[in-house]
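Subject line: Sequence and fold of a protein, written as structure tokens
Body of memo: The sequence and its backbone structure tokens, given next.
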Amino acid sequence: MTKFSIIIPVRKINEFLKENITHLKELTYQNFEVIIITDEEEKFDFQDTRFILIHSGPIGPGEKRNYGAAKSTGDILAFLDDDAYPERDWLDRAVEIFENTEVYALGGPAVTPKDAGLLEKMSGRVLESWMSGAGTVFRHKPGKSMEISDYPTVNLFVRKASFERAGGFPIEFWPGEDTKLCLELVKSHGRKFNYDPSPVVYHHRRKLFIPYLKQISRYGRHRGQFARIYPETSRLPIFFVPSIFLVSLIFGPIFASAFPFLWNLYFGGLALYLLFLISEGYRAYKKDKTILGAAYVVVGIFLTHIVYGGNFIIGFPHKPKLKLRRVDKTTGNYLGG
């Protein structure tokens, strides 16, 4: 019977992790272990011998996951974030897919929790929009089964043998360590891996606007860095679109002042963009029946383009580096976005 090793890196035990633990205990598939890696030694009564708590010192998430993988005894590594929790049939769905021995890795959707508050839910709606999620919407809500070459560790399964073959996670930077692992997985197997909508986890969103935008700034900067050094996964046209939009927004009037015929193109483009924004706001309104929420989505999409696009440009010439997130020493919760 296939055994899963669920690996969760965290700075310190926090409320999100406690919620995650509760749901992990309710999984219907029973053959698993959970390895939680904290900075410092802590004590927690799991009341379940399948849960293992180890400490690693203040190292990055990638290195913690490598540490957890080295301690694991399962056939398949299941990487899960502390602020996400699975559906009861999460592992049942995954094990069905891994019955195909050709499947070496699998990504599943990380959707917004059903009981999320307004600001968290609207953050999820922004990520689910084609305007901001673009080619990654399937990460935030179930999409069609497909082959992929890059996926975040919020809901990622990898056969242990394939993980070791790929060399594990890089330890010198974060975020982006998952992108590099996926790149090495694809290289080592000579083919892409699987995405399937059935193994679902619920992932808490950063609330609009400041925490969410801080997270987006990190994503934009690391993707800009990777577009330079890892073109196989990160030099896709879709990743450049927000930066092109930002540059056009700022410098369009300058060029149009010199070449007046460009004004029609500039204002026509803005009108079309505004039309798309309103359309996405209306779509959010139909789902949640709140005008305020729809307004949050419209502003959130616009700010996503500005913040991501600017940080993509900033990140492009720089070398990726590791910068650990700060936590509240009392609650264990992360500070900021």
